[in-house]
Amino acid sequence: MVRRACDNGNSSPGQKAILTSTPVELTEIGLETGILTNERQETVCSCGKQKWKIEARNNHCQYRCSCRKTESVVARDRDIFSQKRSLFGALWLWCSPLNVSPDKGGLVLGVDNRVMRDLFDQFRSWLSPLVDQLNDELLIGGQGQDVEMDEICFRSKTLDNCVLWVRYFAMVRRGSSKVFLAQLPYRVSKDFSFGSIQCEVHIKPTLSYALQELASVLRRDDGSFRLGAGSVCHTDSARAYKQLGVEDGPLFDGSFCNAKELKGLKLAHTNVKHKPPKPEFTKPFDVPVWQGIDDDWEVETRIGGTQKLDGFFASFRRDVGRQPFNTTGPTPKQADALEQGLHHRVRAFQCKFWMSGSDMFRVVGSLRKKERDDPGRASWSTLAEYLKVAEQCEQPKKRLAPDAGVGLLADSDRELDAGESQCSLLFDDDE
Ligand SMILES: [Zn+2]
């Protein structure tokens, strides 16, 4: 999926600046964006003075105190830069929308590809918990707003003749780039071979289990809801989703997950049938939509389907899925590490998607600055200046005329990504 480039007026130092600046200039860029800790302001030397100067060396630079003690310019930023050289080029490339691999990035910067891979890993492990936090803060939808929900899964480790799948649930308001993503419990499929015929049997969860899963991602740990009241939800025909618009159904009556409050959500719901022989992708539906007061519901025509998430998942799979995420490892410990690596990639991808149109290099700087000043308190307000940009880039979409949207959207994405639809059918429990 191609995102529009957007001129946002606070663009980062361009490629030329990054690739041609001296180490001292790069350090200044690091300080100015908030990526680097300002030693001059924050650290007193062991001699008791605080008179740090930036001093150029051959291909790097360092701080030097008036007592002659020196310190690396990245001494306080080892969490992302383990190297002595200030490798801003690596961070800049990682932040750019070019999706440069560590190997290619290494060629561009003249740095060993193992060094680049380690740096990229460090950028992701630093960012991932912050994205967890921002993700948890999201509130999706609201009265009368169209919200799409769907799942994606990745093949994980093989256990005997079973395969474990890592799954993610996604939810987004149409017209927003703020996709909410939560990991769902594993699912298992079983491989059988009969001579030359191979088949996979998927162990289908009970409806009650699937509903518990759904309820668990709709609320935060403190019991509050991630989904705004009165949202119009669009999904495929998985059985659990079908309960979203049934106010007296088992999702809302408190029979599990003590979620009686869910009833207050007053959701509307449409579902398209992805299954052959006539797979549906988008289709108009007449649904009762809550009007925001009392028990006032009115029938409105809305376009069903998960076309926005289909586009998100297509790029998600290209970016995350093509990586060696497979968690098959010789030891369980290694499998866990690989799966954690997958999660970090997922979160990094999600953050870049949220911020597309904005300058990721500056986003990283703002988050680092916030974490230094007020640890653990990064929030959406930290990113407010970029969100204005993201919203400008997200051109307001005219609501489709009821008969205009059918089969029109996301066809090109769909063609690009045959593997995607195959996989979304994998655990499909369409009726
Ligand atoms: Zn000193």
What does this structure look like?
The longest helix has 25 residues, at 113-137. This protein is an alpha+beta fold. The chain starts with 14 loop residues before the first helix and ends in a 7-residue tail after the last helix. Mean pLDDT is 79; it is low at 1-10 and 393-428. Helix content is 35%, strand content 19%.
Give a concise summary.
This protein is α+β, with helices and mostly antiparallel strands and 431 residues long.
Brief descriptors of the model:
431 residues, 11 strands, alpha+beta, binds zinc ion, 19% strand
Helix content: 25-40%
* SS class: alpha+beta
Shape, principal axes of CA atoms: globular
How many helices? The count is 14
What hetero molecules are in the model?
zinc ion
Give the ordered list of helices and strands.
HHHEEEHHHEEEEHEHEEEHHHHHH
- Regions with little confidence, pLDDT below 50 for 5+ residues: 1-10, 393-428
Strand order of the largest sheet: 7-6-5-4-8-9
Largest sheet: 6 strands, mixed
